[in-house]
Write a structure and sequence with these properties.
With 134 residues, this protein is mainly alpha-helical. Helices cover 61% and strands 0% of the residues.
Length: 134
């Protein structure tokens, strides 16, 4: 049975719901794309992403939502390294253009967006980059 592909709005709603359930940023993004990831890989990916929250284990490095988006790229099919790196770099560039930073330590400063909005933005960026590729 073929899964129905989620719309951008459905992905954002799903990611936000997963955040309310307690998943970290990376896990929320992965779960928002579970329609594109082989079923047997989703649970493993969510487990593997446990340490990516708050910028790699709370260290403030790369935002977990960006890490999750890049994990989805790998989970949605094998690509030649140059193509994968181009896609990965594009997601990072888009996120920086939208948010002004990619590291949690910068994104969590006073006056910045809450994590749930950063998750939503990462989902939108990824959806728009891969919707025609998968």
């Amino acid at each position: 049975m073929v899964k129905k592909k989620y719309t951008e709005e459905e992905r954002v709603a799903r990611a936000r719901a997963m955040r309310r359930e307690g998943y970290n940023c990376a896990q929320c993004v992965i779960l928002a794309f579970d329609d594109l990831v082989p079923s047997e890989s989703v649970d493993t990916a969510v487990l593997a992403a446990q340490g990516f929250g708050s910028g790699y284990g709370g260290r403030g490095y790369v935002c977990g939502a960006v890490s999750g988006a890049n994990m989805v790229l790998g989970l949605t099919g094998s690509r030649p390294r140059p193509e994968l790196y181009r896609l990965t770099g594009g997601i990072i560039d888009d996120f920086i253009a939208m948010e002004g930073a990619v590291d949690c330590s910068d994104l969590k400063k006073p006056g910045r967006k809450p994590c749930i909005d950063l998750i939503s933005d990462a989902v939108v960026i990824l959806h728009r980059r891969i919707e025609d590729m998968v």
